[in-house]
Description:
Blueprint: E1 2-5, E2 24-27, H1 38-45, H2 47-54, E3 58-64, H3 71-75, H4 84-98, E4 103-115, E5 118-121, E6 129-130, E7 132-134, E8 140-142, E9 148-149, H5 153-165, E10 169-170, E11 178-179, E12 182-193, E13 202-211, H6 218-221, H7 225-249, H8 265-269, H9 271-275, E14 278-284, H10 293-306
Parallel strand pairs: 3-13, 3-14
Antiparallel strand pairs: 1-2, 4-5, 4-9, 4-12, 5-6, 7-8, 10-11, 12-13
Helix pairs in contact: 2-4
Domain Kinesin motor: 1-309
Pfam families: Kinesin
GO molecular function: ATP binding; microtubule binding; microtubule motor activity
Amino acid sequence: xxxxxxxxxxxxxxxxxxxxxxxxxxxxxxxxxxxxxxxxxxxxxxxxxxxxxxxxxxxxxxxxxxxxxxxxxxxxxxxxxxxxxxxxxxxxxxxxxxxxxxxxxxxxxxxxxxxxxxxxxxxxxxxxxxxxxxxxxxxxxxxxxxxxxxxxxxxxxxxxxxxxxxxxxxxxxxxxxxxxxxxxxxxxxxxxxxxxxxxxxxxxxxxxxxxxxxxxxxxxxxxxxxxxxxxxxxxxxxxxxxxxxxxxxxxxxxxxxxxxxxxxxxxxxxxxxxxxxxxxxxxxxxxxxxxxxxxxxxxxxxxxxxxxxxxxx
Length: 313
């Protein structure tokens, strides 16, 4: 469960800095090394949340980390090794199928990306940029997003693959197929009880799966011009997310923190998943290369802070 981060530039003979070692240990709920399979990662992080979604809780899974560490692989996976999106939806339909006698259910999903602080629909890319609106109950809606209703996991897999091809990807010096946007897959499960005596009992559970764009340094990715602007937008929304996480993790602390969800589209969309009625898992990705020591340290600090958020479901 622990991660030990060693500083590659440390000199064992340097007596002056002997007790100022930058070696750090972090403790998490689960740590996977390079031998872990997609199945293992899914079972230990996400599998337990699916039951909750069916019974009306919200759940959110984040993939976070610097550029090129495998977030898209974890979430989408390859054809032979499907990722969390597909495994979670598979389990969701199996779970719903098991309770089909007691309740009617509908499943609708939408898949969108946030690129340069604008929202694009990945299932219908020609619809242009979409707006975030708040409805009368205070929940955030996206005006004009395509919602697909289906009960077939194969169909969804094809949609996801198609949607992922529409994602903004550009090569940078650090990663040949770098995702330049945050992708959000939102699955809404509505269950209506069939029992007469309970009246119309409707349970709505939302499952958010978020593949964040990698945080990056312009020096490392050697970005100029448009790429650099994208990188600035990516880092800005990740910073907003970090600020929200900081504020939420200090909620019970000495100073009452104001949580600014409106700093970016990403945090506004995920408002309920971060501080609301939701069970949230963050999967932090780091690279073992010594060149990305700083990024790994920042990522681990970030994920470690996220661990301290306590929400009242």
